């Protein structure tokens, strides 16, 4: 999150917002004062994303123009930072279409090994001044920083755990 340079009031879009990494990113971005757009599929993930602080949710199975919807929501200019937390190679290409001029594509989700990604036509990336940034999450340092941030926050993080059967939420305060 820090590497994105996101500031309060700026737009952050999360592709894979309802997943294991995405839902934590949504909460961190919201706690940092960002305006958050969640992109995922299904009613359950929509409810989760809105509960965690997304201002808007785009169901990629229902939208006819996912990137266009994201741009429209973010003041017609696109997100300042697009976080790709999904592991789909297609999510990376989609991300470049959601970012505003000068925006950042934060590469978090790991597609299958051997998947090539430049994001788009190099001319498109250059003319829109987009930055594509690979970021490793989950290091001991990251975990410590997030834990300290969470301790100082007035809201406590909600964690989800996938098991065989329905998804359940874990809230340490409950």
TrEMBL record:
InterPro entries: ADH-like_C (IPR013149), NAD(P)-bd_dom_sf (IPR036291)
Family: Belongs to the zinc-containing alcohol dehydrogenase family.
Keywords: Metal-binding, NAD, Oxidoreductase, Zinc
Domain of life: Eukaryota
Domain Alcohol dehydrogenase-like C-terminal as annotated: residue spans: 20-146
Cofactor: Zn(2+)
Cross-referenced Pfam families: ADH_zinc_N (PF00107)
Keyword presence, Metal-binding: yes
One GO CC term, this protein: cytoplasm
Presence of keyword Zinc: yes
UniProt protein name: Alcohol dehydrogenase-like C-terminal domain-containing protein
Alphabetical list of PANTHER family matching this protein: ALCOHOL DEHYDROGENASE 1-RELATED, ENOYL REDUCTASE (ER) DOMAIN-CONTAINING PROTEIN
GO MF terms held by the record: alcohol dehydrogenase (NAD+) activity; metal ion binding
